[in-house]
Design brief:
Blueprint (H helix, E strand, L loop, with lengths): L12 H10 L16 H17 L17 E5 L2 H11 L6 E5 L9 H4 L16 H6 L18 H10 L2 H6 L4 H6 L3 H7 L20 E6 L8 H13 L3 E6 L19 H19 L1
Parallel strand pairs: 1-2, 2-3, 3-4
Helix pairs in contact: 2-3
């Protein structure tokens, strides 16, 4: 939510390569990062992207290339899945299918987001001494790569919010939000979300019109818990929306290990990604 860009590595080359093999247009879009902007700004950015695709994008394509707006797949990794989910709720035209990979936004009411917790694997990207300066900086940023491909120190914002239990405060620009929700039982939290912030709690807007969705998540993810994907998948199943959940046993946040093999002799991460790509192909075929 706070750091990264389309230039950041590691890059999902497996997804890019699949698009090249299929002749799909591959678009990787930046969006405004949380603080000083918020999740609501990220929703606006997702809506703006799809408006651009529907109205102006073809003007920038070679004459021999067209865009079928009925067959747009939207994908997001980690915090990027929040914007992908936002497109599924608010964008026009609506995506034909969602791919969420260890993605955030399936359930922002979990204890994981309302209370403090020990440092996670992204803490190595942070210098907490820099937090006061970063938090005071009101510069709007959508690409923090500074010309490179690595992570900037803006991950310090996320790490400090994780430690303090103020992740929701920071992402929604609402001091005290996490503590307010944490004081309530999980079942009471949705009703307690302030009306002006409720549009950002995307799980509250999952309906029968939601696009088919596939979720890939590691069961050992301590940054974005797999409950996010499980909850979203179960919501869709109850509504009768086609959904597939690909859990990678003991998989960490990032799911970048293509060398390890499971008891069957196959790589569970690669197998999950293959299932996800097959799901997308099926969704396109059904349009």
């Amino acid at each position: 939510m706070t750091a990264g860009s389309r230039r950041t590595v590691p890059y999902p080359s497996w997804l890019y390569d699949h698009c090249q093999e299929k002749g799909y247009i591959f678009i990787s879009a930046d969006y405004r990062l949380c603080h000083p902007t918020t999740t609501l700004d990220q929703i606006d950015d997702a809506k703006a992207l799809f408006k651009f695709l529907a109205e102006d994008f073809t003007q920038h394509l070679p004459q021999s290339v067209t865009l079928d707006t009925a067959r747009i797949a939207v994908s997001g990794f980690s915090a990027g899945a929040y914007s992908a989910r936002a497109a599924c709720v608010y964008a026009h035209p609506k995506p034909a299918v969602l791919l969420s990979v260890y993605g955030l936004g399936g359930d922002l009411l979990l204890d994981h987001w309302t209370r403090g917790r020990p440092p996670t694997s992204i803490a190595k990207f942070a210098d907490l001494d820099e937090y006061p300066r970063l938090f005071a900086d009101q510069t709007v940023i959508s690409d923090d790569s500074e010309g490179g491909t690595g992570f900037s120190n803006r991950f310090t914002l996320t790490v400090q919010w994780e430690l303090d239990g103020t992740m929701l405060d920071g992402c929604f620009g609402a001091p005290g939000l996490g503590a307010k929700l944490n004081a309530l039982d999980y079942s009471q939290r949705d009703a307690a979300v302030p009306e002006d912030l409720k549009p950002g709690f995307l799980q509250s807007f999952v309906t029968e019109s939601y696009p088919p969705s596939v979720f890939v998540h590691g069961t050992a993810d301590e940054v974005v818990p797999d409950q996010e994907s499980v909850h979203h998948h179960e919501q869709l199943v109850k509504l009768g929306v086609k959904s597939k959940l690909c859990l990678v046993k003991d998989g960490p946040h990032g799911l970048g290990d293509f060398s390890a093999v499971d008891e069957t002799g196959s790589n569970s991460t690669a197998a999950a990604y293959k299932e996800a790509l097959d799901f997308i192909e099926g969704a396109f075929a059904a349009v």
